[in-house]
Amino acid sequence: MDDEDGHARGTAGYLRELGVLKRAKRSGWWIVGVKDPETIAEHSFRTAAIGAVLALMEGADPAKVALLCTFHDTQETRVGDIPWIGRRYLKAARNEDVTADQLADAHPAVVAGIQALVAEYETGDSLEVRVAHDADKLECVIQALEYLEQGYPNAREWVDTTRTKLRTPSARALADAAETMSSTDWQRTYLP
């Protein structure tokens, strides 16, 4: 097998591995009693969409933020979703190291591009990185609000503690607005 075939196979293997995120549940929600929490892929999708929206509001590059958000939890195919309380007791591999293993046989351009995104998300402090981190937190706030509506009162603490970590004015404003509405308010103007 030549390098091109090997890189194609390694890259396709990485893409197949990402399919695990569609089945893997976000484990932190079990702590608050959610029996069937969202998957990591569901979280990542909405985080990327929120990231693009926040970037537009904050004057950051929406495509860059969406990319940072898309790849921010891809390492969880290998290490799982370790809830915040579990991190106190576990020493997990750095996300950059997990990503390097995931991409070991991928096309060199894919390796360089995704490793750079993950490293920037983990260690950078650009406006795009700050917005991407806020998107991750805002998605958790919105998800917690939805779980509150579904009858999981312990999700309230997640709303309150996560909101305090938002850094951008736009993320704080969206969190405030989300808290004043139900998950179905968006459709009210279209109802007969």
Describe the structure.
The chain has a single domain, classed as Hypothetical protein af1432 (Orthogonal Bundle). It is 62% helix and 0% strand. It contains ten helices and no strands. The protein has helices at residues 3-18, 28-31, 40-58, 62-70, 76-79, 95-102, 108-123, 127-149, 155-163, 169-179. Helix 4 packs across helix 8 (127-149) and helix 8 packs antiparallel against helix 9. The chain is globular. 32% of the residues are buried.
Listing every helix as H and every strand as E from the N terminus to the C terminus, the arrangement reads HHHHHHHHHH
Strand count, sense and barrel status of the largest sheet are: none
Helix content, binned percent: 55-70%
Cα Rg: 18 Å
In terms of DSSP E residues, the strand content is: under 5%
The tally of domains stands at 1
Write down the CATH class.
Mainly Alpha
Estimate the global geometry from the Cα principal axes.
Answer: globular
Unreliable residue runs: none
Entry keywords:
EC 3.1.3.89; 192 residues; mainly alpha; Hypothetical protein af1432; 62% helix
SSE topology:
Layout: H1 3-18, H2 28-31, H3 40-58, H4 62-70, H5 76-79, H6 95-102, H7 108-123, H8 127-149, H9 155-163, H10 169-179
Helix pairs in contact: 3-4, 3-8, 4-8, 6-7, 8-9, 8-10
